[in-house]
């Protein structure tokens, strides 16, 4: 199998040269190689194989997702893509969470400065951080009791209002396409190029992926952990890395709210490691001659 895979990959690199020189399309070959012969997936035999994030202006008919006008945290749906291999889809009509707009590349999500201040208060210490306590409490009055209590306490991702607001203002912002689609890597179709490839891994699998990612580097930071919500880590923070000549993977979720929404499908000890498509292709190549072929890795794999 490795011999076939190596041959196909070498063929692809040759065809890519012709694509660059003569505009011969090679996307279909690339997708078929990765779908059928992902070396990382084969060697690691994941409990939860990788999934991908795609953006489109067309909504797939078979996808599941929130009903129009309904939103909330999207991570419970994404967890079903990870665990049950169901295609999930989210549109701009599902925006009810302050973080999903920037996370999925639909602008910053704030209609005015007051909306930004409200989220900064929530992401820090709730009522203890709100610059206008009366206004904050008024907004909580329109929420269901359990939701209001969560906002009153605050998510406490940031230590104070000022730090939260500055971090929110520094988020990578994009505004493209109307739909975000999650599907298994094995379900990629011709012409689809993912913006984010997402691995769901335990501690041993994460160690192996970090080693792959580090094995070809010589300096600087090798992995990023932005103080971001789960959807932002796999979304706009990963999109940002695609712009770099030296992209890094993003580790998450580091927010308990996101992990809480996933726990019915994904054990809490699992983490996500997301990366842009071009970094995934690099790791695929690196993985062919790596720790994954050693007896030491096989011992850990069998545990």
Question: What does this entry look like structurally?
Answer:
46% of the residues lie in helices and 10% in strands. α1 (2-22) packs antiparallel against α2 (27-37), α4 crosses α13 (256-262) and α6 crosses α9 (161-169). Among the domains are: 38-52 and 189-301, no CATH class; 109-169, no CATH class. The protein is of the alpha+beta class and 303 residues long. The protein has a six-stranded antiparallel beta sheet with strand order 2-3-1-4-6-5. The protein is built from 15 helices and six strands. The model is unreliable at 1-5, 7-11 and 21-29 (pLDDT under 50). The longest helix is centred in the N-terminal third of the chain and has 21 residues, at 2-22.
- Given helix and strand content, the structural type is alpha+beta
- pLDDT < 50 runs, ≥5 residues: 1-5, 7-11, 21-29
3D shape: globular
Number of E strands: 6
- In whole angstroms, the N-to-C terminal distance is 24 Å
Q: How large is the share of residues in beta strands?
A: 5-15%
Proportion of residues in helical segments: 40-55%
* Average pLDDT: 88
Summarize the structure.
This protein has 303 residues and is an alpha+beta fold.
Attribute tags:
303 residues, 10% strand, alpha+beta, globular, 6-stranded antiparallel beta sheet
Give me the secondary-structure topology.
Blueprint: H1 2-22, H2 27-37, H3 39-44, E1 51-56, H4 75-84, E2 88-91, H5 100-103, H6 113-123, H7 133-140, H8 145-153, H9 161-169, E3 179-184, E4 196-201, H10 203-214, H11 230-234, H12 236-242, E5 250-252, H13 256-262, E6 271-275, H14 277-287, H15 295-301
Antiparallel strand pairs: 1-3, 1-4, 2-3, 4-6, 5-6
Helix pairs in contact: 1-2, 4-13, 6-9
